[in-house]
Amino acid sequence: MAGRPKTQYTYRLPADSSGMPRSKWIYLAYFTQILVFLNVLYTITRGAWSELPTALGLFIISLLPYLFTWKTKITFPWFVYFLISLAFLIHLSGYVRGRYLAYVNWDVLAHTVSGSMLALVGFVAILFIDRMWQLNLNAKFMAIFVFLIGLAGEYCWEIFEFIVDQTLGGSLAGKMQADNTDTMMDMIFVLIPSLIIAVASWYYIDRVGKEKIMDDMVKESTYKI
């Protein structure tokens, strides 16, 4: 007598707030964001009230992509959340824990991660621009845009550093621009990750398809894009 066929069950990760299956790697982004908040608490426990506005401001800005997803149900790839949280963690801990002064290459690390973050923001932005304005851009053009966004963001940041140094005498970590070599090294360490992210974006868009990437991000949203 034949037995009953066995029912096979497939485990799925629980859905996130948008209703989409959650990548297990998103927990790395959540953990990194918690570390950002812990640096705010560290500032409070030290009684460093002059540093608190900067700490709170950076923490609130780092929450924006999570709040955006919660409000719109538009879900970005997990590495977008992670790199944004990581960039703010590096900057915030550099200020409140004195790591910019304690570690010679902390500023290099900050610019490298921030360059990657800016390029990824450019990657998401050009996908939305292409869809909303129906530009039908190809993968190579979109990759060039990603690269240029990283460079443009760094260019604006160096202007900001110059203004802070000239008007306020520096930031919480001292002078933001030590000399011309320091500025050029900062720009180089943003250029390199921006180029890497641009090439990866071209490969990802060419392999997966921009329509598929966009559909995955917006399919649970009430906003029709």
Please tag this protein with its features.
globular; mainly alpha; 8 helices; 71% helix; single chain; 225 residues; 2 domains
Write the layout of secondary structure elements.
Blueprint: H1 26-46, H2 52-72, H3 78-96, H4 99-102, H5 106-132, H6 139-168, H7 180-208, H8 210-218
Helix pairs in contact: 1-2, 1-3, 2-3, 3-5, 5-6, 5-7, 6-7
Largest sheet: none
What structural class results from the helix and strand content? mainly alpha
Assembly form of the protein:
single chain
Helix fraction bin = over 70%
Shape: globular
Q: Could you give the order of the helices and strands?
A: HHHHHHHH
Rg (CA only): 21 Å
Taken as a percent bin, the fraction of beta residues is: under 5%
Low-confidence stretches: 1-15, 17-21
Q: How many DSSP helices?
A: 8
> First CA to last CA: what distance?
56 Å
The figure for the number of domains is: 2
How would you describe this protein?
The protein is mainly alpha-helical. It has two domains: 78 residues; 128 residues, no CATH class. Helix content is 71%, strand content 0%. The chain contains eight helices and no strands. Helix 1 runs antiparallel to helix 2 and helix 6 runs antiparallel to helix 7. The longest helix is centred in the C-terminal third of the chain and has 30 residues. It is globular and about 50 Å long. The termini are far apart. The N terminus is likely disordered.
